From TrEMBL:
Transmembrane segments: none annotated. This is Uncharacterized protein. It comes from Aphis glycines. It holds the Pfam family TPR_11. It comes from the Eukaryota. TPR repeats lie at residues 27-60, 61-94, 95-128, 184-217. SMART domains: TPR. The lineage of its organism: Eukaryota, Metazoa, Ecdysozoa, Arthropoda, Hexapoda. Signal peptide: none annotated. Keywords: Repeat, TPR repeat.
Length: 273
């Protein structure tokens, strides 16, 4: 029995749908096989299956992302970037894809594109600590942009005030910028953090550096004495603590009596001998 033109169109439409369903299932299967090869570290087979899947359906975001990761694994950063760029076009708000793309740009040597991609990540997740740290490190070590690096590390410290490495990087920036007062303040913070982490040796080093910049600071002397005590250097601890206490008493007395002269001075009040 002959079918009418409308029946023929309906039949062909159903056939097309059936073929599309089979193709979708086939490309998903190829992508899953690619995943298995990826996990088994058989990267060439993984790439082959991902590419076959993408030939059937070029709009598979996860497959493009995984293809980018495989190329990254074999250090083909150019192809990694290409795959990840295509994945990011399909999912422009996927921070996981964007962050990996930023890393791929970094390894490719394209620092400016890496920075721009990290900024896209931070527009979506401004309080992600690790993304902020990675961007700060690029500004510091690769682009040598100390002012941007300073802003980034300050933001990182706002997000986590307990990470020693953040202060150490900020210390490096202030040393290069010759901001001695800021170097002193960071050394004091580092010393306190080291004491809190039961690391008196690094605390001693931090407070010693602080005193090099401000030799008469009473608090630094007192805390250096505490670090020395924890290290078992009791004589040095007593000297530092006594000096610190003496300075604290003098500072307090000077607030009460503006003309107060420290006992170690050979002068007396009002300049009389």
């Amino acid at each position: 029995m002959d079918m009418s033109p409308s029946q023929n169109k309906t039949k062909k439409a159903k056939q097309i749908i059936r073929v599309e369903v089979i193709a979708d299932q086939h490309c998903e299967a190829l992508s899953e096989i690619g995943d298995l090869y990826f996990w088994a570290e058989r990267y060439e087979e993984a790439i082959l299956n991902y590419q076959k899947a993408l030939e059937l359906n070029p709009n598979m975001e996860d497959t493009l992302y995984n293809l980018g990761k495989v190329y990254f694994k074999i250090t083909d950063y150019q192809k990694s970037v290409e795959a990840l760029v295509n994945a990011s076009k399909l999912a422009p708000k996927n921070v996981t894809v964007l962050r990996f793309l930023a890393i791929a740009y970094y390894y490719q040597g394209d620092m400016l594109m890496s920075v721009e991609t990290y900024k896209k990540c931070l527009k979506l997740q401004p309080d992600d600590l690790e993304i902020n740290v990675e961007l700060a490190l690029i500004y510091l070590h690769n682009l040598k942009n100390l002012h941007e690096a300073e802003k980034c590390f300050k933001k990182c410290i706002q997000l986590n005030a307990e990470r020693v490495d953040l202060y150490r990087n900020l210390l490096q920036i202030y040393q290069q910028l010759n901001k001695h007062k800021d170097v002193f303040n960071i050394c004091m913070i580092l010393g306190d953090l080291y004491l809190k982490k039961s690391d008196p040796e690094n605390a001693r080093n931090a407070f010693t550096t602080a005193l090099y910049l401000n030799p008469k600071n009473a608090e630094a002397h007192w805390k250096l004495g505490l670090a020395m005590h924890l290290l078992g250097h009791y004589d040095l601890a007593i000297i530092s603590c006594q000096y610190g206490l003496g300075k604290l008493r003098y500072n307090y007395a000077n607030k009460l009596i503006p003309d107060f002269v420290h006992p170690s001075s050979d002068s007396t009040v009002n300049g009389k001998r």
